[in-house]
Request: fold
Amino acid sequence: MITHCYKELQRDETKQYILRCFMYAIKECDNEDNIKIGLQTIVPHIFGSHENCKDPEKFMSLPNGKPLKSDGLKIELNNLVQTMIGRSKSLNDLGSTQSNESFNQLVSVKAPKSRHYGGSCSLQNRLSSAVLQKNEGYGYLSKINEAANLSPGEFTMAISSVRDKKKWKKEKKRIQRNIKLAVQLQKKRNHNKDKRKHLLREGKTYGSQMEFNLQQDPEQTTEILLPFNLDGTECKVFFDLEKNRLGKE
Reply:
């Protein structure tokens, strides 16, 4: 992997920034041609060329807030972009299968494969109930009873209400968790950004063997005081009380 070959990619912020550039180029384009154009502008943008950029921005997530300069990394990213441009038709039809997996699991509950329901209309009814539960929630059965001029069922409505609330709370908790993670990640990025700003303003204040790297004027030296010697003529008293202070406790 190219991550281990270039020191610019050792920082998580840099990798996340490059990943966001690819995500924006794919997500914000609505057809194959726009995806190709968006992908072609990624590498020049990361390396400081904004001729084809719609909205040039500062490189807050890159090292020292400056564009990348590694020629080898630029070649690697260009090769990656060319590979993705060849797959632009597939990238235009991207989507998530999470909703499909959720519906398949719901169908497997209504019509498990261990039982044969295909010999009658039972399979169609069970699939219809799965679709209704997916679209309308757990209260679909009460609505069907009302449409058939039947009692919606007191216990059925109570159980449906409890399950719908549980489902809503679970979805709300999932959204809040994602928001919380996004806020924490943004705080971490802002903290790292502030550290880089101070480093740019103040320079390097700590490091190994800094005394050998400093360029000091040999004439500007500090006078070293002579040691204090007692010859018997002084009238001084020395004491040690082993206390932090002399005040009364």
